[in-house]
Amino acid sequence: MQALRAAAAFMVAVHHVQYDAIALAARSGASFSPSLLLPWMAGVDIFFVVSGFIMVHASADLFGRADGARLFLQRRLARIVPLYWAATTLFLLVGLVLPGALNSGAPDLAQIAGSYLFWPTVSTIGLVQPVYSLGWTLNYEMLFYALFTLGLLLPRAWTLPAIILALAGLVAGETLAGPLAVPLRFWGQPIVLEFVAGMGIALLWRRGFRLGLASRVVVAALGVALLLVAAQVPGSDAPWAALAWRGSAAALLVLAAACGKRREAPSTPVRWLALVGDASYALYLVHPFVIRGLRELFQRLGIGSPLLFIILALSGAIVAALLVHRAFEKPATRFMRRKLGA
């Protein structure tokens, strides 16, 4: 599962690095064609299905407990808030010092407040996204955490049905009666149903569903095949089409990763990927800083090789993520959990 999280974060980084490679090539006169092999932003879909799985799997001991909702929310806040707030603050500081390095105008106070509070707001370019635009996924995650917290206040048997009903209700409301006002319009997108898919896989796992090695390979191959086809299908990034193509692929990949019949000793490459998977949250939030910083360096030095830029940027993003995970993310999470009593 951690290896899959590493792959998901890396896919998002590949998606973003190619935009900067295009800009670098245009400025230097070099030729560069972005890779359309995969819908690289499908890494987000994988993250959402994984999140649904992990919330059920890792929080099983909280169901039915009087303090379950409190502990769940405190643990998730301790895990998510410190690094995201740090990344948002760094982004704002960069915007003050080097406004030309950003892709948007200066945010107003409402957008800044909404960013720190995980509340969907309209940006200066008319999109519903926070100041640090990658945080749009965390706004969905926080919706899921809030609903999960409320669900844990209910009797054990009602928790997951209530969460599923709430997510489905948001999507149905936006689909049938939309467009609704922000933030309901944002929360009502089909992508939130990928959390439901992850929860369903966790329930299958808890009820003893297992796949043999050959079956896991077939299921994973089918997931990859769906992504390969989706990259070539026009309109596959539309909300419902993305759910059908990318969401289904993500569910298959998570099913293959989670529901092994037995625990085999991981190979060396898988162990290395798992290390990156541990730092996948840091990789997701840190990689734009590395990519844009290296692009500025390449431009100042007059280096116009997009391929070299991509290799160094992705490698640097992984190294930076591992360092940030060890030096900041883990200590900050431990500190927050102690302070919150979680």
UniProtKB/TrEMBL annotation:
**Residue ranges of the Acyltransferase domain?**
3-324
**InterPro entries named among the record's database cross-references:** Acyl_transf_3_dom (IPR002656), Acyltransferase_3 (IPR050879)
* A GO-annotated cellular component: membrane
Q: Where is the signal peptide?
A: none
Q: Does the keyword RNA-binding apply?
A: no
Kindly list the biological process annotations in GO that this record carries: polysaccharide biosynthetic process
- Provide this UniProt record's keywords sorted from A to Z: Membrane, Transmembrane, Transmembrane helix
**GO MF, one example:** acyltransferase activity, transferring groups other than amino-acyl groups
Q: Where are the transmembrane segments?
A: 41-63, 83-102, 114-132, 144-172, 184-205, 217-234, 240-260, 272-291, 303-328
Name of the protein in question: Acyltransferase 3 domain-containing protein
